[in-house]
């Protein structure tokens, strides 16, 4: 990794590529054609990526919505078993992230991503028919496996398409989709909850069946609609495909040598100190992020709201999370100083958790959750910052899932910080989230200083 100044990337449209002092090739990149290609990806691929993440997080977090209307009672859950169900998802999620993303690089985005969607859709539908805790554990483990590489895979594809200085807003679209999925999840859950038992199946079972079926349709369609690679996209003309290949060569001349798959490049990712420092920061930020995503309905219910409106009350909170993320991403791209924005986000989130801990007020606690929705902003900004400064592609394709894998380990811990014994105010969970978010901010400061220091 290099300093943050590298984010500006190559700006010349006419540069010389060299494989030695005696061989230079001049490559011209038509700026108008390049802009036209980027717009095509914005209109034809980015919305698909956002939709994929919406359904992924719907199928991942709907267990939190289902908890509000009978899930725990129907499977005879005892003690802290709901938290354990949340934790089991991240066990396989962490283990299989790197293999999934490397598979995207090897066999193409359309095949691997659509396969993953079909797999997790089937598991989600199956969750609607479980009868006991053990079956729930099996479904969560399988769901974690199927969803493991989806976000880092999409982020990797984006890093191969867009210029460095404009990647932040695109990754923000993906991350915004995760927050938006919470709003959709609350709305869908509320609607299904009002319908009650149908055809002998409880409402929470229909939640899994309906959302899983929708995801299954999307997965099948993605096989035909997603490109295999950025320079093989079905919607590009032959000259546009050639430009994408030339532009990749241009970026490689700036960032690193053009390469085929190499285990040595993967090893570079695993031994880069900056990657591990960033990973620790992501781990810290992951605890409040995943705790918020799963337990927000439970936390809001703890403020004293009735079960019938809890899922509705999550909707504006998630929408605020989308707004904060959009603002932070816009500022980071505008200023091209991601570190400054990343340091400010934890301050906002910590303020929210401090209010939730310090006041028993129903209104005050609910307002605090709006501030805490900033948890969705930190990780995508840090991932973009790191992706912009790692080359070659194979190293990046290993580093990104490695970072997300370590961040997702925090999901195992986050699932345990809101035990039922601490209801209704969940001071312990909110306190841990505050502390870990603060440490994440400190991690950015440390990473920035180490990254700016002279390297031996």
* Global structural class: mainly alpha
CATH level-two architecture: Up-down Bundle
Strand order of the largest sheet: 1-2
> Which class in CATH terms?
Mainly Alpha
Mean pLDDT: 84
Mass-distribution shape: globular
What is the share of helical residues? over 70%
**Residues in β-strands, percent:** under 5%
- Could you say how many structural domains there are in total? 1
Beta strands, count = 2
Order of helices and strands: EEHHHHHHHHHHHHHHHHHHH
The DSSP helix count reads 19
Global Rg:
22 Å
CATH-defined fold name:
Growth Hormone, Chain: A
Distance between the termini: 13 Å
- The CATH superfamily appears as MFS general substrate transporter like domains
GO molecular function, one term: transmembrane transporter activity
Membrane topology: Multi-pass membrane protein
Transmembrane segments: 43-61, 82-102, 108-130, 137-159, 171-192, 204-226, 273-296, 308-327, 339-359, 366-386, 398-418
Subcellular location: Membrane
């Amino acid at each position: 990794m290099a300093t943050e100044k590298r984010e500006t990337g190559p700006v010349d449209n006419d540069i010389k590529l060299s494989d030695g002092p005696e061989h230079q090739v001049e490559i011209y990149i038509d700026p108008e054609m390049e802009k036209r290609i980027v717009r095509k990806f914005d209109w034809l691929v980015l919305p698909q990526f956002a939709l994929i993440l919406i359904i992924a997080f719907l199928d991942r977090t709907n267990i939190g919505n289902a908890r509000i209307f009978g899930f725990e009672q129907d499977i005879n859950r005892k003690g802290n078993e709901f938290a354990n169900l949340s934790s089991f998802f991240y066990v396989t999620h962490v283990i299989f992230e790197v293999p999934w993303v490397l598979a995207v690089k090897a066999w193409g985005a359309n095949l691997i991503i659509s396969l993953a969607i079909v797999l997790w859709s089937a598991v989600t539908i199956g969750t609607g028919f479980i009868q006991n805790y053990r079956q729930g554990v099996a479904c969560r483990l399988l769901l974690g496996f199927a969803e493991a590489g989806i976000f880092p895979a999409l982020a990797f594809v984006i890093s191969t398409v867009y210029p460095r200085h404009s990647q932040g807003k695109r990754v923000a679209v993906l991350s915004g989709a995760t927050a938006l999925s919470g709003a959709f999840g609350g709305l869908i859950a509320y609607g299904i909850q009002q319908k009650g038992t149908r055809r002998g199946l409880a409402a929470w079972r229909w939640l899994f069946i309906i959302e899983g079926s929708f995801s299954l349709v999307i997965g099948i369609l993605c096989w035909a609609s997603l490109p295999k690679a950025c320079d093989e996209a079905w919607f590009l003309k032959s000259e546009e495909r050639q430009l994408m290949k030339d532009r990749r060569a241009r970026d490689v001349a700036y960032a690193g040598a053009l390469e085929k798959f190499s285990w040595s490049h993967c090893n570079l990712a695993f031994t880069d100190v900056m990657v591990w420092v960033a990973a620790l920061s992501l781990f810290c930020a992951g605890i409040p992020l995943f705790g918020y995503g799963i337990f927000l309905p439970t936390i809001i219910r703890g403020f004293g709201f009735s079960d019938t409106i809890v899922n509705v009350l999550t909707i504006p909170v998630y929408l605020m999370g989308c707004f904060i993320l959009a603002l932070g991403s816009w500022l980071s791209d505008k200023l091209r100083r991601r570190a400054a924005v990343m340091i400010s986000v934890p301050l906002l989130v910590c303020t929210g958790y401090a209010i939730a801990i310090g006041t028993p007020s129903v209104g005050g606690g609910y307002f605090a959750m709006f501030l805490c929705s900033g948890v969705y902003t930190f990780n995508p900004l840090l991932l973009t910052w790191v992706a912009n400064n790692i080359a070659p592609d194979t190293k990046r394709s290993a580093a990104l899932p490695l970072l997300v894998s370590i961040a997702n380990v925090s999901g195992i811990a986050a699932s345990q910080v809101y035990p039922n014994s601490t209801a209704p105010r969940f001071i312990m969970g909110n306190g841990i989230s505050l502390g870990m978010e603060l440490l994440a901010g400190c991690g950015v400061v440390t990473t920035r200083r180490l990254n700016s220091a002279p390297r031996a």
